[in-house]
Amino acid sequence: MTGSVRLETDRLVIEPLVETDIPTFVAYRRDPAVARYQSWGDDFSVADAEALIAGQPATFPLPGQWVQLALRPRGPAGDASPVLLGDIAIGGDAVQPDTFELGVTIAPAHQGAGLAREALEAAIEHLFFARGAHRVLMQGDARNEPVLRLMRRLGLRHEGSIFEGDWFKGEWTTLERFALLRREWSAR
């Protein structure tokens, strides 16, 4: 899975995070409501952001790699604004071929505008038809109803619950797992 990382939708340009994104990226990741169900805490730092940006691949992820992509407003000429609205994560499964996991985070000021769905639909479409993916999956904390609704709206199939199977931020939590095959996406 190599190649440049840039996707476009009607409203968004989706491309790798860059150093100028760090202040905004850190600000929304430090928001306790945003961090609550994410793998980082509200103590996410500038150094954390710098390490993430410096350490990620410049291409779509190979097995075992993740790439974090910025969501930016798309201008009338298709150009990207420097404004960071949020980000999506794409991870290549380390064991299963042609399998990717997705995640999303939207800055609080931009939540509720359908940006997460738009960005994830573009990523799913690209993974299936430009990158040859067989399967895409997402999972979320069972208490995170907005993300669970998003996964259902995207047409992902609920594959199961992992009851109190994740020791997360000092407590046992339940994960809900959703997935989609290329043939299911094509038939929708």
Question: How is this fold's topology laid out?
Answer:
Elements: E1 7-8, E2 12-16, H1 22-30, H2 32-35, H3 46-55, E3 66-73, E4 86-92, E5 99-106, H4 115-129, E6 135-141, H5 145-153, E7 157-168, E8 171-181, H6 182-187
Parallel strand pairs: 5-6
Antiparallel strand pairs: 1-2, 2-3, 3-4, 4-5, 6-8, 7-8
Structural commentary:
The structure is a single chain. This protein is an alpha+beta fold and 188 residues long. The chain has a domain at 7-133: Gcn5-related N-acetyltransferase (GNAT) (Aminopeptidase, 3-Layer(aba) Sandwich). Helices cover 28% and strands 32% of the residues. It has 6 helices and 8 strands; from the N terminus they run E-E-H-H-H-E-E-E-H-E-H-E-E-H. It has helices at 22-30, 32-35, 46-55, 115-129, 145-153, 182-187, and strands at residues 7-8, 12-16, 66-73, 86-92, 99-106, 135-141, 157-168, 171-181. Strands 1-2-3-4-5-6-8-7 form an 8-stranded mixed β-sheet, sandwiched between helices. The longest helix has 15 residues, at 115-129. The mean pLDDT is 94.
**How would you describe the shape?**
globular
- The share of residues in helices is 25-40%
Strand content: 25-35%
Residue windows where pLDDT falls under 50 for at least 5 positions: none
Order of helices and strands: EEHHHEEEHEHEEH
Number of strands: 8
CATH fold-level name of the domain at 7-133:
Aminopeptidase
- Radius of gyration, whole Å: 16 Å
Number of helices: 6
> Which class do the helix and strand fractions yield?
alpha+beta
CATH C-level class of the domain at 7-133: Alpha Beta
**Termini Cα gap:** 25 Å
Strand order of the largest sheet: 1-2-3-4-5-6-8-7
In CATH, the architecture of the domain at 7-133 is 3-Layer(aba) Sandwich
Would you identify the CATH H-level superfamily of the domain at 7-133? Answer: Gcn5-related N-acetyltransferase (GNAT)
Mean pLDDT: 94
